[in-house]
Design a protein that fits this description.
Elements (H helix, E strand, L loop, with lengths): L28 H38 L3 H46 L10 H4 L10 H12 L25 H26 L3 H40 L8
């Protein structure tokens, strides 16, 4: 009679890691429209700032050419007040636009996770936090946007290309030209705007004020260009996701 040793107890397997919040599809169209509308309002405020800047430039030029007078001082006070108002409106508009844009950005990031769960190099939380962490905010949002862009691209399996054959399921990714233009202009507006603002704040002599006003006006023009490209970027990415959501995976919320 053979002897059967008792079975040794087996340790239970470790519990699986806790899953993060599930990603789900939700239309970004409403947030996109609000973002584009606020960007349009920002452009109008920048135009107002340009007009106010021209007024300051003219008054300072008149003071340089003709010297001080009571009338010139009154004009200078009015022009300075108008320019200050334009700055306040720009700050308020930028804050409102930033809040809505980040809400839209997070929404399309969650959608992109449904389209391509393994196609993201940064965690979902960085879609918001990446804008506020110093230094990191110089490249994290762009990296996240590129992942969103690729995940939202329309699928074109077995697309015919010149050259060697591509593997099955290969997708043609839309060029990132618009994305790169948006990010480049965003960085430029932030850097140039800071330089121009400090130049204006430190200007005391009339000639220095004129140069600073010119710098601020150039910054306004750059802001307008950046807003136009941002509108095109938001519109294009939203359209890509909307089209893919109608045929792609995921559960609509």
């Amino acid at each position: 009679m053979s002897y059967t040793p008792p079975t040794m107890p087996v340790a239970p397997p470790p519990p699986p890691p806790a899953a993060g919040p599930a990603a789900w599809l939700k239309s970004p169209v409403g947030l996109a429209r609000a973002t584009m509308a606020l960007l349009g309002v920002g452009m109008a405020v920048d135009v107002f700032s340009l007009v106010a800047g021209v007024g300051v430039f003219d008054v300072v030029s008149d003071l340089i050419d003709n010297g001080w007078s009571a009338g010139a001082e009154d004009r200078a006070d009015r022009a300075d007040s108008l320019y200050g108002l334009s700055g306040v409106l720009q700050a308020v508009g930028m804050l409102a636009t930033a809040v809505v844009f980040i809400c839209w950005f997070r929404r399309v990031r969650v959608n992109a996770e449904v389209f391509a769960p393994d196609g993201h190099t940064k965690a979902r939380g960085w879609a918001v936090g990446g804008w506020f962490v110093p230094v990191v905010n110089l490249w994290f949002p762009r990296r996240i946007a590129a992942d969103i862009w690729d995940a939202s691209a329309p699928a074109t399996p077995d697309a015919p290309l010149a050259g060697p054959p591509q593997p099955a399921g290969w997708e043609v990714q839309p060029k990132r030209t618009l994305l790169n233009a948006w990010w480049t202009l965003w960085l430029c507006t932030g850097i140039f705007g800071q330089i121009a603002s400090r130049q204006y704040a430190n200007a005391e002599e009339p000639e220095a004020i004129k140069r600073a006003v010119v710098s601020l006006m150039a910054s306004d023009v750059l802001n307008i260009a950046a807003a136009v490209v941002a509108i095109l970027f938001v519109r294009r990415l939203t359209a890509m996701q909307d089209a893919k959501a109608r045929t792609g995976p995921g559960t609509h919320a």
